[in-house]
Design goal:
- By secondary structure, this protein is of the alpha/beta class.
- The protein has helices at residues 13-30, 57-71, 106-119, 136-139, 149-162, 166-175, 183-188, 221-230, 237-245, 268-281, 297-312, 339-351, 382-388, 393-398, 402-409, and strands at residues 48-53, 78-84, 94-99, 127-133, 192-198, 261-266, 285-288, 319-325, 357-363, 375-378, 412-413, 424-430.
- The strands form 2 sheets. The protein has a 6-stranded parallel beta sheet, sandwiched between helices. A 6-stranded mixed beta sheet has the order 7-8-12-9-10-11, with helices on both faces.
- Helix 6 (166-175) packs across helix 8 and helix 11 (297-312) runs parallel beside helix 12.
- The radius of gyration is 22 Å and the shape is globular.
- The mean pLDDT is 95.
Length: 436
Amino acid sequence: MSPLPPVRPEMPPASHSQWLRDLAQRAVAAVHPDNLFSNALPAPGRKTLVVGAGKASAAMAAALERAWQRQYPEADISGVVVTRYEHGAQCEKIEVLEAAHPMPDNLGEQAAKRMLASVEALGEEDLVLALVSGGGSALMSLPAPGLTLQQKQSINKALLRSGAPIREINTVRRHLSAIKGGRLAVAAHPARVVTYLVSDVPGDDPTLIASGPTLPDTTTAADALEILQRYEIKLEPEVRAHLKAAEKSPRPDDVDFARDQSVMLAKAADALAAAHDAALAAGIEVRVLGDDLEGEARELGAEHAALALGLQEELRQPLLILSGGETSVTVTGNGRGGRNVEYLLGLFDGLQGAPGIYGLAIDTDGIDGSEDNAGASFAPDDWAKMQSQGLQPASYQADNDAYSFFAELGNLIVTGPTRTNVNDFRAILVLPTVDN
C-alpha cells in the first residue's frame, strides 16, 4: 500500500473522514490470512487433515493450501472447514462449507458432525491442522448428548442480548457442546493437532477463540451454570440436568495434549500496530488505549468522547486515538445495529459536534452484528446535518437503533465480508483547536 498522506487541520472534513477509512482498510489488510502463513509449517503426517471453523476459516484454508503446496508439493492435504454464509474462499483440496452466524443453524451442526467423524480414525503418525477464528462457536454448534440445537439457539440468543462478555458466553457454549472445549482434539488423538488461530477475543486467550474446539478447557460446567443463573437465562430441565451432571472437560494436564501446538497468526494488536505505524509515518501523534477494551458499547463511546475533548485542549498537532477489543450491548429496544455503531453513537453524542474531532468504528470481519455494514464514521459537521434532519440521538439509543441513525446521515461503512476477524477497530482523529 502507498503511504497515507499527512493530515492537516485545513483539510476539508471529507478528506479527514476518508483518511480514517483508508487507515481502517490498512489495519484490516494487516490481519488478513493471505498475509499470515509462512513457510514454517509442520512436517506432513502419514495423513494430513484440515478442520476448522470461523469467519476467517475459508480464507485461512486457501492461504494454507498455497503455503503447503510451496513447502510440500508432494504431500497430500485434505479436509473440511465451515464459515459464515458469503465468507467462503476458493480452495482446491479443502472443502468449504457455509452456515449461519450469530444464530447457529442445522448446516453448522452437520458441519461439526462431519469434522468429528473425519478425525476419529486417525493414528499417532497423522497430523491435524485446525484453522480456528472468531465466529466458530456458532458455526459448529453440535449439542452435547441429550440436548437439541433449538435449546442451544435459545440460550445463545438470550446470552447475546444480555450484555454478557464473550468469555462468559463461550464458557456456556463449551459446556453445552459435543465438539468445543477441546473435544474435537480428543476425537483426533492420538494424532498430533496443530491449531492456527486468528483471535477475536480480548486478551487473546486461545481457549476462548471459537470456544476452543482443539484446546483443553480451564472452566467447568458449574461455571457455565452460574453464568446462566446470574443473567437469569431460562433453562429447560434437560439443560440444567446436563450442566449439573456433565463430565469434566478435557483438561490442560491430559497427556494427549502434550504433543499438540497452537500458533497465533493474527490478533487485534496487529491491526492496531499497522494503523499506528501508518499514522506515525503521516506525522500524527498516536495514543493506543488498548486492544482488549470491553464494557457497554455506548458507555465506552461516551468515555472516549470525554477523553478526546480533554486531550484536544492541549494539542499542538493532530492526534489519533486507537482501540480494539469487544464491547457488549444490552438490548432493550427493537432497532438495528451492532456494537460498533452503538459505540460510535455514544461517541458522537458525547462530542456534541465538537470541531476537529472525527470518529470511526468497524468490526474487522466486515459485519457489525448481523447487519450489512462493517460500522460507520462521522465528521464534526454531521452534528449540524443531524439537527437539520431532526434526528435525536437519545431516541435512537433507547431503541438500540444506531444503524438507522448513521444510515440517515449516510455514514455507514459497507465493505462486505473481509474474511478475517480480530474484532473491533476504533479510531478517533483529534485536530488541535485554532487557539492552541
